[in-house]
Recover the amino acids of this structure.
């Protein structure tokens, strides 16, 4: 069970208080009508699914209810940073060294 | 005296407390402090089981959790049958009943042993190579009818219980600064250091008593005390601290992410008369800031031909039985090995007047202080020697000695009589939990062991599991690990007093792999994995057949896959692989150390989650009334919903027909409280709903409702419900029963992450309101007398209106909506008033000969009107267009969730499955829901389906059956005759519009 | 290749087992192959076998990062069935099932296909509707699947708790009698042995590090830890690692990789004659020939390549197992492990071409790929050998995510195993 720090509550809580919500920083096209079928499919379905650092969304559903983002290493499952939704995507490269451990 | 092989004094047993027990029906006496294994040994019983494949007689090999052979079934009263328990871990209690396993008719005379005669036919993986014929019987016939049933019957160990387990199990979460696993010298010291630093400490140990290897330590003096006194001191010290939790009989079995450790505590299995209120076992789920692993080491057997007879035992185990349990393994011992443990065991046995027939050290030039001691005691020590065979059917009677030459071969050196043989191939550090914590292991050639190297988790290892050998070193490193852990947990370690250790025996040595013997390729079997009957020849065969990965060899031969998970065998298997492949041992690789360390009871893992606690039951505020009034309930997600209210003599169909009839002719009440309700509030509430739902809500007037449909971004219908506007910035949104949580989650997602600019707030009000649907031509008459502040009149409160007022004196939101096609209202009152308001409405309803109706009648009534149920008419692949709800889509809207997907090529195809009505040509036939629809009447296999029946009922109002269906290009097929193929022949149907009753909706306006 | 037969077993019994040859060769990689398959799991090895056997493509290499069959092939709960809802799924899983029925013979390797029946439990009215829909659809397609009453279900699996006193009482079940289990490892070994005998090179401990493309963008080679291998056709059959491999060619996929856990009990004498699945309360159980109860759990919530999931996933499954089979409550979990499953948005596989010329993919089998192994390899081989996809594979193209023509088994039944 992961321990996840909610950036809104500012405390670590067990994973079962949270709900995973997929890859982060996938922006819904502001005008969906203007994008091609391919671009729309990309938005809907294409995912990085990386083996390594992953910026992803979580919701503290059994806590404050807020969505936030986390950087997690998908091989070790270690969460390296959590931050509020809307904040810019961190430079994943900066985590590379610590994450390899 | 509890058995002829009991020593006169010493050990951790109470000779004054005899305990009677049975094994295979024979009655024996042991004493308090015994395990089943020690009690049997004290009674001279070595034969305790039969092996899985060859049914070879097997004895007790070890003294701990690693035991591969001595598996028994423990039988208690009331169906409490537990198979496959290790005799080495079963604590004796008075009246303990145990039986052996996997033998017929008896342990001594097992017919299955005949398999041993055919052992050359059963090499590793033999079953992959045969049982495929005979061809003329057809593929698989013989396998499925003959061979597989035979194999299944032969396989398996004990028998599962035949009745449900009457015991219960508990579960607990715990947090601590330092969790120490293992209470041997290293673990005790680590716990002390962490406790002295003021930390919250949990110390767990799988054994009944704390102390680990020190419990059988009789020579060493620690801090001027005997080992046992020192342990007692330290345990006292630890138990006096309220921040320390001591958990004996508790196995740490799994190490998960983020220092989450699972422990299994055996609470009552050791008691003769457990308190029925006590759980049998308890699952501890521990979040530990830091973990110290002091898990010790496991002794390895030696691999020589027939190394598996009862009477052949690990030397360290024999030492433990003697010193801790006062049980002698026999009268006349031979010892063999490559590790000094054999000398320690021999010296201890000799002190108890066991005749030592000889010590045979595999090493040509062993260097141990104990050798001169042994010789002084008159024991013959032969170096460069081995065992090349053993004899004795049910118990060892003699061993054949071998002399090792420099070239690595062995020469026959004659027989030696003995009644037990103690062996030691050295000790394997228990790095299972460390490895589970994702820590990296490193091979230490000097110690012939994999030891913890780089940690991934917040974990420290100390003692023999970390390669520490000398007791002083173990104690020192135990303290250090405890201090390090405490410091890492943010505590201040206190300076410690050095611990003096005197007279500790230093034990060195060890070997891996098979010992040489002169008769190579003989039919003699040298077992690697005792329980799974895997021999060294099996491993070699696997390598010859091209299996070069240790994982392949493990799976092909099943070595290491028995219930002991290879604790005594894995390193030896690696040793054989290494020499067979001629590569260094670490290059062979390691198999994964998988949880659990030892088997864990299913019940313990399930703990409290049983029966009603399996999943919380949700009941509405009106549920108790439905129960009082004989409702039959159905599960709808976690909810219990009243399905129908049968009167005496009515079955479901009769009750539903009556309920439908009364709603259509008079009035009925339905508990609709389970529908999801979300309050959407804020200046941008209408804009938010507009972006979410296909409909437009900006133009919805205050006091009005609208039917809303919600899609996912892929364009498929996922929910629907009525949405009412209470004020400019306040909406009352309803969802399906099952969709409530999902819809709120989705709304929060969009609001927080896609549209954070919108000023709008969402609150789940599902539990806040009890909802009473009053439906039928008399509904207004029934409801009106109770309503204050709302004029329910036709003109002032038309269909799809909403108003706040009072019902039965209680603040209420009243909707004029209908899911039946009749004049209808839905009354929302605060949940606490749900039942009382319901009862007042019920009194009024009774005046009109109304009824309470359940979900089944609701379904019929809505189907007659063609109203869909999301999840029944839809299955996640249905669009608004498919449902014919194009009218609902806000024409002025640029965008809403899922809109973009609707223009994709597959979403606009003419042959999409569209919602239609179906009427059977024979009106009496009610179609089966889920039935397929075809053009042709003769449905040959592989015929294409046009669609399927989504809802089907007998309609009392229409006097015939009705059905809704999704049919390819369905709307264009109105009037077409199609077929519904059934096992008894196709049923002819006519495609109609999906509304059967009051198509113009005249009754709604009443 | 030594023929496997009882006769040869007897012969070897007298010959000290010295006559058994290696089951597959372990050659060094050659400089070039006609086709390179990445991933030596069941699907990849089957693909290579059928390429060699049915399409005459003999210069095939199967590259494996670790040891063959070490991924999901060796980590699943071995359930085989074909009673899927949509006709596209019915076609591919039934194709596989028919191949299972003769697979031991075909490969001269006893893969222990055991059609002991797969029973899927209904716990509420909705389940009943969904399963009956499956029964009707399958019957029309000529696939066996029948509805069992509560009592019939109990008769088929006597340890099932059909009383009303459990939280979600069982209402009935759908049964596919031809469904069952097989010995998972043996499937990989059997295909490896068969393919190797036909000249396919299986190269283990060979990790692909790059996919090289020519100026036109087409595949021309793969870089591996054992050197460069030239080829113009690459088939990626890497399950949970598909996204990682395809990213090397710049291809993004509609895939997410999740840990999926399974566990076995200690072996006991036979108590469980069939496979039982309950999707509603998340329990899947059968008993192996060895006597272990084999239990499937759900996926963890988050994507991961760690092969370890949370304990709460395992305990949740055991909650359900103990409810359905109360006699197993005292049995013990022996081994718990995880695999990495690649899941598509519609829970159906992707089989066929990628946007890169010469790069093919067979992935997205999610939690239920084992049952498809022979069929998947068979149609993928045909799709790679010819220019057009095998008709059974054709609907499982990547482009369905653009057109919206999904094959959504998950939405239809919430059944993925």
């Amino acid at each position: 069970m992961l321990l996840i720090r909610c950036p809104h509550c500012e405390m670590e809580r067990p994973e079962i208080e949270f709900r995973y919500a997929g890859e982060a920083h996938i922006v819904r096209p502001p005008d969906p009508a203007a994008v091609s079928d391919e671009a729309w499919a990309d938005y809907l379905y294409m995912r990085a699914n990386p083996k390594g650092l992953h910026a992803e969304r979580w919701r503290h559903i059994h806590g404050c209810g807020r969505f936030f983002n986390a950087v997690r290493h998908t091989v070790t499952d270690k969460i390296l940073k959590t931050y509020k939704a809307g904040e810019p995507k961190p430079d994943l490269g900066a985590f590379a060294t610590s994450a390899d451990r | 005296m509890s058995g002829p092989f009991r020593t006169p004094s010493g050990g951790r047993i109470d000779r004054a407390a005899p305990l009677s027990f049975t094994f295979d029906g024979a009655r024996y006496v042991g004493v308090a402090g015994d395990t089943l294994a020690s009690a049997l040994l004290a009674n001279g019983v070595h034969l305790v089981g039969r092996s899985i494949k060859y049914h070879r007689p097997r004895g007790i090999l070890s003294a701990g959790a690693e035991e591969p052979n001595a598996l028994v079934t423990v039988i208690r009263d009331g169906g409490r049958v537990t198979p496959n328990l290790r005799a080495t871990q079963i604590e004796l209690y008075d009246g303990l009943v145990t039986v052996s396993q996997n033998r017929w008719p008896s342990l001594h005379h097992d017919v299955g042993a005949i398999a041993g005669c055919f052992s050359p036919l059963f090499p590793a993986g033999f079953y992959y190579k045969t049982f495929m014929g005979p061809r003329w019987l057809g593929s698989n016939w013989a396998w499925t009818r003959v061979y597989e049933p035979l194999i299944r019957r032969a396989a398996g160990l004990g028998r599962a219980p035949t009745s449900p387990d009457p015991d219960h199990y508990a579960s607990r979460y715990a947090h601590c600064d330092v969790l120490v696993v293992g209470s041997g010298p290293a673990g005790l010291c680590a716990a002390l250091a962490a406790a002295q630093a003021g930390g919250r400490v949990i110390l767990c140990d799988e054994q009944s008593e704390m102390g680990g290897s020190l419990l059988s330590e009789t020579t060493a003096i620690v801090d001027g005390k005997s080992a046992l006194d020192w342990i007692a001191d330290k345990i006292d010290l630890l138990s006096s601290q309220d921040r320390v939790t001591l958990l004996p009989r508790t196995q740490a079995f799994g190490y998960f992410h983020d220092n989450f450790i699972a422990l299994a505590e055996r609470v009552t299995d050791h008691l003769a008369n457990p308190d029925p209120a006590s759980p049998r076992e308890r699952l501890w789920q521990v979040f530990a800031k830091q973990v110290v692993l002091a898990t010790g080491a496991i002794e390895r057997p030696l691999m020589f031909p027939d190394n598996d007879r009862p009477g052949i035992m690990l030397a360290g185990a024999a030492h433990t039985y003697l010193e801790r349990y006062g049980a002698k393994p026999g009268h006349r011992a031979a010892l063999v090995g490559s590790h000094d443990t054999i000398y320690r065991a021999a010296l201890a046995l000799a002190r108890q007047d066991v005749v030592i027939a000889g010590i045979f050290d595999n090493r040509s030039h062993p260097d141990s202080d104990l050798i001169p001691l042994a010789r002084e005691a008159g024991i013959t020590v032969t170096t460069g020697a081995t065992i090349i065979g053993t004899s004795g059917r049910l118990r060892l009677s003699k061993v054949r000695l071998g002399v090792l030459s420099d070239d690595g071969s062995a020469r026959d050196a004659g027989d030696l009589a003995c009644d037990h043989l103690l062996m030691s191939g050295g000790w394997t550090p228990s790095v299972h939990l460390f490895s589970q914590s994702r820590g990296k292991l490193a091979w230490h050639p000097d110690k012939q062991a994999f030891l913890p190297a780089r940690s991934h988790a917040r974990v420290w290892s100390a003692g023999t599991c970390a390669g520490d050998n000398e007791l002083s070193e173990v104690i020192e490193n135990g303290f250090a690990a405890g201090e390090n852990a405490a410091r890492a947990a943010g505590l201040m370690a206190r300076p410690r007093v050095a611990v003096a250790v005197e007279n500790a025996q230093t034990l060195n040595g060890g070997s891996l792999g098979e010992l040489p013997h002169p008769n190579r390729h003989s039919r003699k079997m040298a077992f690697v994995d005792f329980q799974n009957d895997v021999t060294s020849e099996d491993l070699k065969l696997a390598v010859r057949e091209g299996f070069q990965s240790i994982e392949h060899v493990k799976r092909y031969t099943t070595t290491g896959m028995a219930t002991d998970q290879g604790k005594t065998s894995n390193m030896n298997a690696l040793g054989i692989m290494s020499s067979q492949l001629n590569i260094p041992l670490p290059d062979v690789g390691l198999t994964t150390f998988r949880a659990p360390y030892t088997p864990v009871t299913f019940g313990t893992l399930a703990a409290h989650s049983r029966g009603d606690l399996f999943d919380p039951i949700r009941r509405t505020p009106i549920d108790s009334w439905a129960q009082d009034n004989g409702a039959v309930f159905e599960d709808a997600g976690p909810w219990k919903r009243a399905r129908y209210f049968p009167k005496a003599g009515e079955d479901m169909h009769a009750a539903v027909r009556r309920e439908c009839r009364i709603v259509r002719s008079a009035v009925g009440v339905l508990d609709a409280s389970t529908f999801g309700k979300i309050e959407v509030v804020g200046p941008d509430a209408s804009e938010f709903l507009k972006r979410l739902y296909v409909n437009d809500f900006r133009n919805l007037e205050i006091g009005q409702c609208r039917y809303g449909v919600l899609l996912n971004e892929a364009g498929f219908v996922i929910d629907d419900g009525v949405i009412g506007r209470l004020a400019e910035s306040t909406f009352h949104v309803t969802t399906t029963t099952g969709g409530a949580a999902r819809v709120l989650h989705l709304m929060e997602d969009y609001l927080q992450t896609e549209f954070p600019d919108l000023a709008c707030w969402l609150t789940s009000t599902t539990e806040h309101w009890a909802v009473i649907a009053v439906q039928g031509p008399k509904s207004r008459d029934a409801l009106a007398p109770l309503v204050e502040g709302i004029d329910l009149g036709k003109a002032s409160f038309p269909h799809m209106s909403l108003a706040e007022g009072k019902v039965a004196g209680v603040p209420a939101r009243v909707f004029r909506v209908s899911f039946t096609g009749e004049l209808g209202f839905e009354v929302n009152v605060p949940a606490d008033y749900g039942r009382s308001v319901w009862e007042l409405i019920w009194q009024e309803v009774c005046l009109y000969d109304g009824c309470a109706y359940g979900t089944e009648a609701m379904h019929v009534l809505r189907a007659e009107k063609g109203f869909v149920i999301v999840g029944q008419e839809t299955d996640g692949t249905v669009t608004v267009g498919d449902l014919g709800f194009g009218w609902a889509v806000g024409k002025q809207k640029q965008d809403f969730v899922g809109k973009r997907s609707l223009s994709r090529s597959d979403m606009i195809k003419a042959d999409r499955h569209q919602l239609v009505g179906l009427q059977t040509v024979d009106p009496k036939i009610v179609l089966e829901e889920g039935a397929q629809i075809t053009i042709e009447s003769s449905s040959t296999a592989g015929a294409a389906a046009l669609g399927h029946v989504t809802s089907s009922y007998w309609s009392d109002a229409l006097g015939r059956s009705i059905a809704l269906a999704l049919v390819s290009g369905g709307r264009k097929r109105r009037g077409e005759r199609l077929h519904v193929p059934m096992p008894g022949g196709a049923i002819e149907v006519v495609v109609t519009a999906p509304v059967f009753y009051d198509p113009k909706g005249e009754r709604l306006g009443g | 290749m030594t023929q496997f037969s009882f006769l040869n077993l007897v012969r070897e019994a007298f010959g000290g087992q010295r006559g058994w040859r290696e089951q597959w060769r372990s050659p060094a990689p050659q400089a070039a192959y006609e086709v390179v398959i990445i991933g030596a799991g069941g699907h990849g090895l089957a693909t290579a076998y059928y390429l060699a056997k049915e399409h005459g493509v003999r210069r095939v290499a199967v590259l494996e990062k670790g040891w063959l069959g070490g991924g999901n092939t060796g980590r699943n709960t071995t359930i085989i069935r074909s009673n899927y809802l949509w006709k596209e799924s019915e076609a591919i899983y039934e194709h596989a099932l028919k191949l299972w029925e003769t697979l031991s013979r075909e490969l001269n390797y006893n893969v222990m296909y055991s059609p002991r029946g797969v029973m899927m439990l209904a716990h509420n009215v909705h389940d009943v509707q969904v399963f009956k829909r499956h029964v009707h659809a399958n019957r029309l397609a000529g696939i066996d699947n029948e509805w069992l009453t509560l009592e019939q279900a109990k008769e088929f699996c006597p340890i099932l708790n059909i009383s009303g006193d459990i939280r979600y009482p069982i209402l009935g079940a759908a049964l596919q009698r031809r469904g069952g289990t097989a010995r998972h490892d043996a499937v990989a070994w059997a295909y490896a042995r068969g393919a190797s005998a036909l000249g396919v090179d299986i190269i283990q401990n060979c990790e692909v590090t790059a996919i090289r493309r020519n100026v036109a963008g087409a595949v021309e080679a793969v870089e591996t830890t054992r050197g460069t291998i030239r080829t113009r056709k690459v088939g990626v059959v890497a399950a949970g690692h598909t996204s990682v491999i395809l990213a090397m060619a710049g291809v993004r996929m509609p895939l997410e990789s999740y840990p999926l856990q399974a566990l076995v009990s200690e072996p006991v004498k036979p108590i469980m004659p069939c496979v039982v699945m309950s999707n509603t309360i998340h329990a899947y159980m059968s008993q192996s020939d060895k006597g272990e109860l084999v239990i499937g759990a759900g996926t963890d919530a988050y994507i991961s390549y760690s092969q370890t999931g949370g304990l709460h996933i395992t305990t949740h499954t055991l909650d359900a197992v103990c409810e359905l089979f109360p006699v197993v409550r005292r049995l013990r979990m022996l081994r718990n492990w995880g695999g990495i499953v690649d899941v598509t948005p519609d829970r159906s596989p992707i089989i066929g071409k990628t946007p890169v010329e010469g790069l093919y993919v067979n992935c997205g089998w999610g939690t239920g790929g084992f049952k498809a192994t022979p069929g998947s390899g068979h149609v993928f081989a045909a799709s790679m050998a010819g220019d057009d996809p095998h008709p059974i594979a054709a609907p499982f193209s990547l482009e369905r995510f653009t057109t919206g023509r999904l094959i959504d088994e998950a939405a239809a039944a919430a059944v993925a195993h």
Observations:
- The first strand of chain C starts at residue 35 and ends at 38.
- Chain C touches chain B through 116 residues (CB under 8 Å).
- Residues 24 and 193 of chain C are 5 Å apart (CA to CA).
